[in-house]
Amino acid sequence: PRRVNLQDLRKWKVEGRKIVMITAYDYPSAVHADLAEIDVVLVGDSVAMVALGHDTTQKVTLTDMIHHCRAVVNGCKRPLIVGDLPFGSYEVSPEQAMSSAYRLIKEGSVDAVKLEGGKKITETVHRIVQGGIAVMGHVGLTPASVSAIGGFRSFGRNCKEAKDILEDAFALQEAGAFAVVLECVPQVVAKHITELLHIPTIGIGAGKYTSGQVLVYHDMCGMLQHPHHAKVTPKFCKKYAQVGEAIQEALENYRDEVRNGEFPSETYSPYHMPKEEYEQFL
Ligand code: KIV
Ligand code: NA
């Protein structure tokens, strides 16, 4: 199948066909997303939290991101693949951002990059797009700023914040972004922004009126089922499966069968030695 491109996204926005996006971080998650005909796959810096166990996304490096991007690219034929520029790889200057974006494209092999922030990074977005790289924006809750924000929270629940998000989204569109993620904003705010922009909006915790939706793979699959981890699964995320429970059960069954000698049975002991070889061996 032909890879999804920016023209498809533009067309789908006009037709009102919703864009389906999911994160992936490795080969198996990428293959699953591809086989499920997901439109856009994001190698998110959320990898820091759901795959590497860090408390925030700030801890992931550009080198880490490239490593994960390469694995995802190996598993995805059809989806457009977007890679997150991580915290610290684009804020210093447009030049720093451009060199990071080029690395993510050339070494990570992704189709487009995403970075967080609105008005204050639009010069950077413009320069990256002028440099030939497709950019997706990300406004509302921007998790990479969590240490300055002081925790994860929703954005745009008062008029001032809602106006800021609208202006940020507009500025990104003007700078040449091909789409913008709206994270943790009220549905009415996301709806209004979606109606005013001509580029697609992708919502997460932003209600049903955006041009598309994105969820974090591990969260929507119910990968981390322990009470300890349940805390970090956001309340807007529907769990479409209890994959973590299935994995836990498999591991415990394996443990028990090894201990009681049930595994490996004859079926799983496939390498046989001819009798005469065996006798000689003894
Ligand atoms: O890193 C991530 O998973 C993201 C999505 C939540 C949009 O940026
Ligand atoms: Na991200």
UniProtKB/TrEMBL annotation:
Listed GO CC annotations: mitochondrion
Catalytic activity entry: (6R)-5,10-methylene-5,6,7,8-tetrahydrofolate + 3-methyl-2-oxobutanoate + H2O = 2-dehydropantoate + (6S)-5,6,7,8-tetrahydrofolate
Assigned EC number: 2.1.2.11
Listed pathway(s): Cofactor biosynthesis; (R)-pantothenate biosynthesis; (R)-pantoate from 3-methyl-2-oxobutanoate: step 1/2
Protein name: 3-methyl-2-oxobutanoate hydroxymethyltransferase
UniProt record, GO biological process: pantothenate biosynthetic process
Alphabetical keyword list: Transferase
The family this protein is said to belong to: Belongs to the PanB family.
The keyword Transferase is annotated on this UniProt entry: yes
Full-protein interval shown: 51 to 332 of 364
Top class in the EC scheme: transferase
Any one GO MF annotation of this record: 3-methyl-2-oxobutanoate hydroxymethyltransferase activity
